[in-house]
Design brief:
The structure is a homodimer.
Chain A lengths: L1 H12 L9 H6 L2 H5 L3 H12 L4 H14 L15 H12 L6 E6 H12 L6 E12 L5 E11 L5 H9 L6 E4 L5 H8 L6 E6 L25 H10 L2 E4 H4 L14
Parallel strand pairs in A: 1-2, 4-5, 5-6
Antiparallel strand pairs in A: 2-3
Chain lengths: ~260, ~260
Amino acid sequence: MYCLDRVPAVAASKPELRDAEPFKTVLSGNREAIAKLSMPDLEKILVATLTGMTTEEFNTEVKKWLETARDPRWKRPYTELVYQPMLEVLRHLRDNDYKTYIVTGGGQDFVRVYSEKVYGIPPEQVVGTAGATKLGYDKEGKPFLTKEPKLLLNDDKAGKPEGIHLMIGRRPYAAFGNSVGDREMLEWTGAGRGVRLKMLVLHDDANREYAYGPAEGLPDTKVGTFTEALLDEAKSKGWTVISMKNDWKQIFAFEKGGRSE
Amino acid sequence: MYCLDRVPAVAASKPELRDAEPFKTVLSGNREAIAKLSMPDLEKILVATLTGMTTEEFNTEVKKWLETARDPRWKRPYTELVYQPMLEVLRHLRDNDYKTYIVTGGGQDFVRVYSEKVYGIPPEQVVGTAGATKLGYDKEGKPFLTKEPKLLLNDDKAGKPEGIHLMIGRRPYAAFGNSVGDREMLEWTGAGRGVRLKMLVLHDDANREYAYGPAEGLPDTKVGTFTEALLDEAKSKGWTVISMKNDWKQIFAFEKGGRSE
């Protein structure tokens, strides 16, 4: 959403993009056409909107966007769409001297902007998809870092244990996921010595949040993927599967007191 | 030293290396010839001894080596050759709620093995030269990570601020260095808002430790490089230069009470 929203500003500073695809489609505002963009097209949008600026310019833009952007369904800032049980488990772990991390397929620099405020997790405890930066100097000799279009870590699937090794260098004692992208991280966690906690959240509540599978006959959507194979592996390895519908009284932190029973 | 010491074991498992350079020279034990190896030769040795094994095998080998290897001059384990003033400043910073990091040109996985025991710095607070890993599975389906010959971060010079951004995502409030490889890190630290501490240790005590320049007419050796230009920049930017000879009563932590005045 951030990248799509940034396209007009990027096209304003680079007019040659206005008539070039996929930027032309994004600028048209045609939601149906935007939803159909291919993966290489989306990658072009990521490169144009997430690289080429300094790290400080990027942070400023993300902060500005987070203040004004609203989720179209919930009509709230994205940073308010945080799960109450997730906040509770993070607090519980920290109260018991665990160090808590976010390990996300999302952009590391992006998530770091709000992780401390929203989850109580400082920037250095965010592991995400990350690109290279390059040191340069301005006219006064002041150094800056420019975000480069060179991928260092694709923090999804096998990239999650690889990213954990790179950024943390220790194996987790507990890991929590909600899609096929988390399978390898939970396997890696479970392969450690002694007791390890592995949990998966199943999004099975279309009314209160979203529902996606195709596991358990849930819709096979673009929101996320939780396959039957993942559910089978969870059962065979003793990973706990949490049903948002049945196990969570309250979903979002902004709800007061959760639903009535 | 670790990589050179590992060559015999690697050559034993890969006999084709025995007669191939630069391994033949290393196996000969000819110190003069080893000292003359070129950078591409040294890179071949790094690739052969630091990649191809699992992260767990690597950790085990490093631990074993650290237990038995001795520095030829000091006749002590390398992990005992730690500076007393460095331990004191780390403790002082942590006592005042700073988070302390090692940012090293050395191998990240290597330094992480002993950083907690020697410096009180946990593995996740070590930023170093780092390569990619690749997830695989053994016959029983247990996942492991293999160290790959693909460089992700060369944590030296411009790579230090780049590595700090990647691994920490925040600008340091204090940075300490001892060679030209630390220049960009101190510049990056100093470019932050408000007060920042920048310090350089000058190795100018050949008797108690080592002396290297060529700054101040100190020997231009292979041990390290502290240039006149770095000293000039330190003076012009107000970085504190610490003379090991004049400012440190005690150098190594193993010395009892330091030298007499």
